[in-house]
Write a structure and sequence with these properties.
The complex is a heterodimer. Chain A is mainly alpha-helical. Chain A is built from ten helices and no strands. Chain A is flat. Chain B starts with a strand and ends in a 5-residue tail after the last helix. The C terminus of chain B is likely disordered. Chain B is α/β, with parallel strands linked by helices. The chains are: A mainly alpha, B alpha/beta.
């Protein structure tokens, strides 16, 4: 029984790898079996081959993209947190800002890049701003939601001790919204990558997005796929970093898996 | 003049056509007295708590605490509710010490006298039987233990006034009766003024010096009972004829106000029906 549970746990750990490897194997076989031309859909082995050949420029472009993404993401955290706190703790700010934020969020960011180019020129700056524009919204909404889950009774307890609004925010509101905040980071970081790459394909002379656009104009399809893989890899890697961070910072919110000692009243 | 005074108080939530929770409520509680408020459900008992602590202003009438009229939230009240509402990211000890981080003068001294305050919290936790649980997280504790910790949190800063809103309602009977004893011991030691809102008449009579019976909504005080039983009271006390008689009296009064409110809601019920309800109270 115990052995079976252990092997099940191992299987759970291996599942993500099994699925990815399985997918690549099916892809490889499909390409060979149906004789699909490399400029339509290259086989994973061909993509890997291209990556190894071109790894110098690919990696330097990837690092450029990563840097733009992280700068935009950092801005997104600062602004998202500030907006979230404002919306979540003040009804006036909520009423005033929420419709505006919804409006900003519903504009397709690809349509904003040309405007950013007029303002900021071509290059890294529009990429950073696009990444920021895409990722601040989920952070703000999640932090605001977290603040609104503070129990009214707890607020009563603190208010009748003479606590100010700031006290309540510091002692209860912010800690309470931390699980929401860290959950939003996982979503926001992937959105930041989307923003950077969109901007790079439209207006840049550096980065993975630019590289893929170049590859596309030259019909170097395996190189485009190599770029896609690198973006996906960076997305997963940063996601894992923030998932680990979330587990460390807000372990109390996912408690009780070890079972509690109830019934000891 | 009492420590807590309500003089003909009305409380209406919202605008003119909002719910009238209290109307013409008057009561007076001496300093160091243990008061209980009982009544049918929805009679505005919790509204009474909000009024006394200044969390909600009265629509009419006057609320006075310690001789001055209440205009905003009081600064040094202890509160505990049916839900222990401990902070899940803090351990039991630092949950207990939360008020010290807010109430003056402790707030200013907390850093300097950390050891002294920690010792005080440990002692308080020990008196309610939570010794050895200081570093446990709240979710590792049973409901009864969480409620003990919540009680400690409401008392750590030695408040002049303790407000308890059905603190034991969610607990099993044995734990509840045990905590009555714990609360009585704490009160006899510290003699804070206490207002306990409860549905449990035995609980009210066991703990309180004075019991206020409230009418159905809009609530007002319809009867006041002094409980002149010697302290410390024990569970045995609750089976004495005098105690049982008091509970029967209060139960009849509440049955009566409930019947009246039903009659008010459904005017077609004849007056005789009301009377019958008074004559046949449910036997405990």
């Amino acid at each position: 029984m115990r052995l079976r549970r252990e092997s099940r746990a191992n299987l759970e750990k291996a599942m993500p790898w099994l699925v990815i490897i399985g997918l690549l194997v099916v892809w490889q076989f499909a390409v060979t079996a149906f004789h699909i031309a490399p400029f339509i859909l290259p086989a994973p082995t061909a993509v890997f081959e291209t990556f190894m050949q071109q790894r110098g420029p690919i990696i330097s472009n990837a690092l450029f993209t990563l840097r733009s993404t992280l700068i935009g993401f950092a801005l997104g955290i600062v602004v998202g947190l500030a907006l979230g706190v404002a919306i979540g703790s003040s009804r006036l700010a909520y009423k005033g800002l929420y419709p505006l934020l919804i409006g900003i969020n519903s504009v397709p960011k690809a349509a904003v890049v040309p405007i950013l180019v007029v303002w900021l020129g071509i290059g890294q700056l529009p990429a950073i701003v696009t990444a920021f524009l895409l990722c601040f919204f989920p952070i703000a909404v999640n932090v605001a939601t977290g603040l609104s889950t503070v129990e009214p009774e707890l607020q009563d307890v603190l208010r009748s001790l003479g606590a100010s609004k700031l006290d309540i925010l510091r002692k209860v509101g912010l800690p309470r919204s931390m699980p929401y905040f860290f959950a939003s980071l996982k979503v926001a970081i992937t959105l930041a990558f989307v923003g950077t790459v969109i901007s790079e394909t439209l207006a840049s002379d550096d980065g993975i997005g630019y590289m893929m656009l170049q590859a596309s104009s030259q019909f170097r399809v395996p190189l485009m796929f190599a770029g896609l893989f690198v973006i996906a890899f960076m997305g997963i890697a940063t996601y894992i970093v923030f998932a680990l961070l979330e587990g460390r910072m807000t372990g109390w919110a996912t408690r009780g898996r070890e079972g509690s000692m109830g019934g000891r009243g | 003049m009492g420590f807590v005074e309500l003089d003909n108080v009305a409380l209406r939530y919202g605008e003119r056509d909002g719910t009238l929770a209290l109307n013409g409520a008057s009561l007076s509680i001496e300093r160091g007295e243990f008061a209980a408020v009982v009544g049918p459900s929805g009679c505005g008992k919790s509204s009474l708590m909000k009024l006394v602590t200044g969390l909600h202003p009265p629509s009419d009438g006057a609320v006075r605490v310690a001789g001055s009229s209440v205009t905003g939230p009081l600064k040094c009240v202890g509160m505990a509710f049916q839900n222990p509402s401990l902070l899940p990211w803090r351990d039991v000890l630092s949950n207990t010490m939360l008020p010290l981080e807010i109430v003056q003068p402790h707030r200013a001294q907390l850093r300097r006298k950390k050891a002294e305050y920690t010792e005080r919290a440990r002692k308080l936790l020990a008196t309610v039987g939570l010794e050895g649980f200081e570093t446990k997280q709240p979710w590792m504790l049973s409901g009864g233990m969480q409620q003990r910790a919540s009680l400690c949190r409401s008392l750590i800063h030695s408040p002049d006034l303790l407000m308890l809103d059905e603190p034991f309602a969610a607990l099993d009977a044995f734990t509840r009766e045990e905590l009555w004893g714990v609360l009585q011991d704490l009160w006899m030691e510290q003699k804070f003024t206490c207002i306990l809102v409860t549905h449990d008449l035995r609980e009210a009579a066991y703990l309180a010096d004075v019991i206020f019976v409230m009418s159905a909504r809009p609530g007002r005080v319809v009867a006041t009972h002094r409980v002149d039983m010697p302290r410390p009271r024990r569970l045995e006390t609750t089976y004495q004829p005098k105690f049982v008689e008091l509970i029967h009296t209060i139960r009849d009064e509440i049955a009566q106000v409930r019947a009246q409110s039903r009659a008010d809601v459904r005017p077609e019920v004849p007056a005789g029906g009301q009377h019958a309800a008074i004559q046949t109270p449910k036997v405990a």
